[in-house]
Amino acid sequence: MREQLLALKEEVSKALGSASTDQEVDQLRTQYLGRKGPLTKILRSMKDLSEEERPLLGNLANQIKQELADLLDGRREKIRDEERRRKLRQERIDISLPGRLPSRGGYHPLTTVTREIIAVFQGMGFEVVEGPEVELDFYNFEALNFPRDHPARDMQDTFYVAEDVLLRTHTSNVQIHTMKARTPPFRVLAPGTVYRCDSDTTHSPMFHQVEGFLVDREVSFSQLKGVLTVFCQTLFTPDVPLRFRPSYFPFTEPSAEVDIGCFLCRGGGCRVCSQTGWLEILGSGMIHPEVFRSVGYDPDDYTGFAFGVGIERIAMLKYGIDDIRLFFENDQRFLQQF
Amino acid sequence: MQVTLEWLKKYVEIEESAQEIADLLTQQGLEVSECVSVRPHLQGVITSRVVSLEPHPSSQGLWVCRMDTGKEDRTVLCGAQNVAVGDCVPLAVPGTAIPGGKVIEATTLHGVFSEGMLCSELELELSEDHVGIMKLPSDTLPGQELGRALALEDDVLGIEVTPNRPDCLSVIGVAREIAAKKQRELRLPKISPEEQGPSSAEASSVQILAPEACPRYVGRVLEGVRVGLSPFWLRRLLSLVGLRPINNVVDVTNFVMLEWGQPLHAFDLDRLEENRIVVRTARHGETITTLDGEERKLIREDLLICDAHRPVALAGVMGGLESEIGDGTTRVLLESAFFEPRGIRRTGKRLGISTEASYRFEREIDREGCLRAADRASEMMTSLAGGRLLAGALDVYPIPYRPSNVRMKASKVNRLLGTSIEKEKILGYLTSLEMDVRDEEGDVFEVTPPSFRPDLRMEMDIVEEVARIYGYDAIPTHLPEAPVSVVLAEPERRAEELARDVLVGTGFCEVVNYSFSGPDLLEPLGFPDGDVRTVPVPLQNPLSEAQGFLRTTLVGLLLDTVARNLRQRNRDLWFFELGRVFLPCADQVLPEERKMLAGVMAGRRYTERWNQPDAEVDVFDLKGTLEVLLEAFGIRGFEWNRSEQVSCLHPGCSGDILINTTKIGYAGKLHPSIQEVFEIEEDVYLFELEFESLASRVDRPKEYRPYARRPPVQRDLALVLDEAMTYSQVIEKMRELADPGVTEIELFDLYRGPPVSEGKQSMAFRITYQDPSRNLTDEEINRIQEAFLGQLLPGLGAHLR
């Protein structure tokens, strides 16, 4: 019987050698280990053995049974493994082929830049307010200390709809609407569309601005510098060189133009910065006492500052766009880049 | 305003380079936009003196000149006829390349050896003058480089002077800024004109009939003037700063205007009737022919300078043609006046004239400086054009200048700026800007700004001056203190972001179109008569007819965008715009500004790829987009009702969009005939919605609804229905009759054609049954479905397929 068992083991391992599929292995398993198989037969005949022999051969039989099972399992595992590897080899595809894409959408770059600007100022406690684009002369000019027949009005060529009704030339009209409707303190950001009769590669008859203003007691020019410094450092880089220089806007005093160091030439002078090494980014200033008077605030009670950023200007600088008209041509090849 | 560095140096010491001065001025608020170095290439051109002059032995018209060149004498042939012995002239020695590229060589001409060339101003590109050889001042030493001898090297600074700083529309004004910043002395020219002969009052008179419009008028009279070419330095200087030299009299008026900022005008006194000046407003319909030859029609507001009978100049704007200085002029009346700024601006604007003079007058000149400028010009004229200045000025000054006083506190200055500048320093800064400063007790001081600074009237104006001189960069940087507050995006903004996010995520590109539109983009859309969109708000001064009014819909411009892209061979265009339209309101001055959201789809559903089907977009892509979009705003199931109202859309494939019976817009396939108008050769699907109807829902509350965890059971059901039956009729009926255990009914197939009989259609639905609390058995579902069909089939007149 011992010989029978050992021969069986020999036979199985031989048979397994030629088995190459899962099914063949299963077949062998049934054939040798199944109810009608030789091992079962041997185990059944165990009862005929002597008391001494039975445990010895019983152990051997179980051991052989286990070994056979392991052999079969091992073989099957090997076959499966080979099968997996064969499959992996077969399924090799050219992964350099282009992917399957849905239609490619994109935000307009002006939207993206506006969102970025708003995010920075929201972080400094500014809330967003909108105002009308068709506006009365009072809100766009008169209340902002642009008197009639004053040369300051030449700074902004205006589209008219009727006498004293115009397309706003800046988002500063929101200052007047807000101040008339509220009591300080407040920090407001007013993004929007503005219009000027002007059209070339750097001027568009319609463009976009973000106006910001803060009114409170004891607001100082140094705070204006603080807020705008944080803004420029966040929108550009933390180490961007900044320059505040005097300028003139009728509705602010002192007024300041803010320049950042040209990031293309790093101050050396190039075409984009007109060889100056600086890029004009925004206009700003302390809100003019006359503006406060026109909305019924006492300039001795309140002070504040205001600023205006041209969205197209920032977008042109950020993305290296050299013609403002591209924003409004809406060519798909332009739009899909953003 | 253009100034040159050498000119500035006459009034203030400057050791800095032109670029340094440009930076300094920019930091002071006088933005230098241009800094051009002028370095004429005149190497090899030297000064020389004519020692002797003989006619060429054989060639008529040629002169043989013996030239002193400092070291040795040279012989030079010259064809010009304006050279005389003793003249100092420029000589280009052999080997010199004169501007224009010509190289001068020593050569024998008609038997005479010539070593160089005498040059005209034109040949040296120093001016347009080519009448003859250039004449240098008679005291010029021979043998110097011409560039050095004439100080031709200079730098021109182009300054953007803001409207509040008329004082800086002058070289002295700019020099004053440098002096103040650098704490250097401002050296003003000494003016002491020599008067001769009778009093001016005997030769002329000035009468002001409109003192409000002309608070001061100074006249000075010169006799025996010889009008001619200005000296080279003056012509050169004017040219450098962009003015065309005319003659010595006019050039002097321009020089003084640039030097002091006071526009001057010179009249030919003999061409003024009765030799006198009357300043008055125009009579309605009166005309004047200005220097440029245009006849100007006037209104009562315009101010005129007249002689005894007729207008001779449009005050402060432009002189008259008839009283102009000419070659024959010998008696000059020099005008140096102050005109009220607004009036000058109104007249200039109305007539479309802007001159160097009007530009300055409308910004307000220095009323106290009129006489000084007249004297300066008179002195220069007598020196350059000869003649004599009659005694006494005709100075009519009905409304004298009233200085303003500003009392202020140093502490307030510091509070506003966020600085801690000592009072003493503040006073120093203001004094350097020629303000009259009176120190008072403690914190207080009083300031009287100079008459040339009309922009300084109140405390804040003075604070700005302190800041400018102290330097903006020196002011510390602080953040405002404020209680911590959380600012969330406003609902409207969140709604905008959401709409954009959804559409961009679905594959749309956002466009931004102009708010302007024109008839070509509106009329084809065919909005019905009486629709507010057909009567847009027109602009009074549009850039073109195509941009003649404000848009009342986003659609026309979007279709134009599609057409433009197709012309560029761009394909698969999915665009949207979120923007305002402008709708006129009866009885309202301002139109209503309404935010709209519009989209277009044309081309394929997917970007063209090797492994993607080439599927054209159809109306259900449009509808799917709207479903996704509206669902993002919590709107499940909107109505899309066929409507005859939207005539720009295909009548069989379009309709109004309604939410709870409220119309919020329209959508569908573009009408083929409009496709043609816009020259679009493929199907276009579009929608336009009132954004407010979405935005108002952005903050709807969300609440979790438990979902069934038991396994769902699905049954398919194919109904054969009348062809006219719409999906929405069928689904409504099904929903009405469905058991509460039905959680979803989905159409998965729609079929027409055999074996389904003619006039019928088959709709196949997948019905999902699910009970939140227990497993449903087959028997239960069979029972439910049977009961359901029992009602549904007769209700729809359908049978099972």
Detailed description of the structure:
The complex is a heterodimer of chains A (338) and B (801). Chain A has 2 domains: 2-90; 109-335, 2-Layer Sandwich (BirA Bifunctional Protein, domain 2), CATH 3.30.930. In chain A, 41% of the residues lie in helices and 20% in strands. Chain A contains 12 helices and 10 strands. Chain A has helices spanning 2-18, 22-33, 38-44, 53-90, 109-122, 137-140, 173-181, 221-235, 289-294, 311-319, 326-329, 332-335; strands at residues 127-128, 134-136, 160-162, 165-167, 186-195, 206-216, 242-249, 252-261, 278-287, 303-310. In chain A, a hairpin with a 2-residue loop joins strand 7 and strand 8. In chain A, helix 1 runs antiparallel to helix 2, helix 1 packs parallel to helix 4 and helix 5 packs across helix 8 (221-235). The longest helix of chain A is centred in the N-terminal third of the chain and has 38 residues, at 53-90. The model of chain A has no long low-confidence stretch (mean pLDDT 90). By secondary structure, chain B is of the alpha+beta class. Chain B has 6 domains: 2-39 and 154-182, Phenylalanyl-tRNA Synthetase, Chain B, domain 1 (2-Layer Sandwich), CATH 3.30.56; 45-149, OB fold (Dihydrolipoamide Acetyltransferase, E2P) (Beta Barrel); 195-396, Phenylalanyl-trna Synthetase, Chain B, domain 3 (Phenylalanyl-tRNA Synthetase, Chain B, domain 3), CATH 3.50.40; 406-469, Phenylalanyl-tRNA Synthetase, Chain B, domain 1; 491-695, BirA Bifunctional Protein, domain 2; 713-800, 2-Layer Sandwich (Alpha-Beta Plaits). Chain B is built from 21 helices and 39 strands. In chain B, the strands form 10 sheets. Chain B has a 7-stranded mixed beta sheet, sandwiched between helices. In chain B, strands 11, 13, 14, 21, 22 and 23 form a 6-stranded mixed beta sheet that branches. Chain B has a 5-stranded antiparallel beta sheet with strand order 5-4-3-6-9. The longest helix of chain B has 19 residues, at 778-796. The model of chain B has no long low-confidence stretch (mean pLDDT 92). Classes of the chains: A alpha+beta (338), B alpha+beta (801). At the A-B interface, helix 5, strand 1, strand 2, strand 3 and strand 5 of A face helix 8, helix 11, helix 13, helix 14 and strand 27 of B.
